[in-house]
Write a structure and sequence with these properties.
130 residues, single chain, binds zinc ion, mainly alpha, 4 helices
């Protein structure tokens, strides 16, 4: 991978990171300022459901953000190793990286990692990004 490609991926990562952070700020802001967010007996169940949905979204966003931070760190620390699959050591195809620059595994390892049929492998935070 050449430096201009890395730069392109880095830009993509930073843009996505900014979007995720922005999204989080807007959501927190609107919850605080919205007077209809006040709890009463009629709106409470809906509000609880919304909180569950919001916290799930927050978690997904936090995980994606963590994956992006991780990729940016790898790009900064070991630019020559960036894009190598963490499982099989093969290079992840550039087309995949352009789509998912935070990916840590090639498609094959990713799907093996996903099949869930092998023992009691614990899912971890990064599973959904790569
Ligand atoms: Zn692999």
């Amino acid at each position: 991978m050449d430096e201009s490609t890395r730069q392109e991926l880095r830009t993509h990562l930073e843009k996505r990171r900014a979007e995720l952070i922005e999204e989080g700020n807007i959501r927190a802001e609107s919850q605080r300022d919205d007077p209809s967010a006040r709890l009463d007996e009629d709106t409470q169940p809906l509000s609880e459901m919304n909180q569950v949905i919001a916290s799930r979204r927050n978690r997904v966003r936090a995980e994606e953000l963590a994956g992006i931070e991780n990729a940016l760190r790898r790009l900064a620390a070991e630019p020559d190793e960036y894009g190598r699959c963490v499982d099989c050591d093969e290079w992840i195809p550039l087309g995949r990286l352009k789509l998912l620059p935070w990916a840590q595994r090639c498609v094959q390892c990713k799907s093996e990692n996903d099949d869930g049929g092998r023992g009691h492998r614990r899912r971890h935070a990064m599973d959904f990004v790569d």
